[in-house]
Amino acid sequence: MPIVLNTRFEHNIIDKYSCLKKLLRITAYCIRWKKYNRKSYHFTAEVETDELNDAKLLLIKLVQKQYFCEEIKCLITKQNINNKSKLKLLCPFIDKDGVLRVGGRLNNMPYIQADKRNPILLPSQSKLTILIITDEHYRQLHIGPQALLASIREQYWPLNGRNLTRAVVNKCIICFKTKPFTFQPVMGDLPKERMQPGRTFATTGMDFAGPVKIKVSNRRNAQSGKAYICVFVCFATKAVHVELVSDLSTDAFIAALRRFWSRRGYCTTLWSDNGKNFVGANRKLKELRDLFSSKEHQAKVQRCVSEVGINWKFIPV
């Protein structure tokens, strides 16, 4: 004897619960009550897997009859589906259980499961579709929208599935807490030196990096020494020029500066750190801090760059 339930009652059940597993258990108990006599049968055992699958198929068929009524009538009467229907391009058909599925050309491949060959069609407006996607999202440990859609399509084919999976992931509280949006501060205006077009390295910023280890000579057992890297950055084009400095003496720095000029040409403005930002640095940078803070070093470098018409500026504290 076929099981017939009230369609209106079933839709009220779908709208009432927000958990797919609970909805399937309640529907399975309703099917039990319909099959057996209430006085002679006691509901003591838990529902079985077959009963849950039957309950799911029953709910899917009721939802399909509600949203795909015209398409199902056309398939039963063997008429062509309306060209304006969303199911026209999916080549739908009704299987032996009365479920509307997606058609295709893989029916002669027995090693592929039937649900993968012909997934079950689900309407995008039904709450049952949202419950199925949400349950799969929890079962797959909160995967992203694309992976969730791929996992859903192994058994179902929800219409407008991409937007539905995105909506489920965006409304998930656990996913929202694990992926918080960091605050992005508003950046200040760029200095005018970086906005003026000009020759490369016309306005240059300079800073030190290191120390690094280098070989004193090319011999096999040569000792390693300590050196520093002087980095020159163009304000306009962000071009970078690197020079190796043998030590932190003023003469070594001026030699690196002259090599930079010989390679890139004289710059009109040269910006550098005034050395006070190294106050909290570690002991390895103490020598570099002392060099940049030295009045003798600043005066000697200023005298060197003034001879070639370069305006040296220090970053204010």
TrEMBL record:
Q: Where is the Integrase zinc-binding domain?
A: 126-180
**Pfam families per UniProt:** Integrase_H2C2
GO-annotated molecular function: nucleic acid binding
Q: What is this protein called?
A: Integrase zinc-binding domain-containing protein
Stored InterPro entries: Integrase_H2C2 (IPR041588), RNaseH-like_sf (IPR012337), RNaseH_sf (IPR036397)
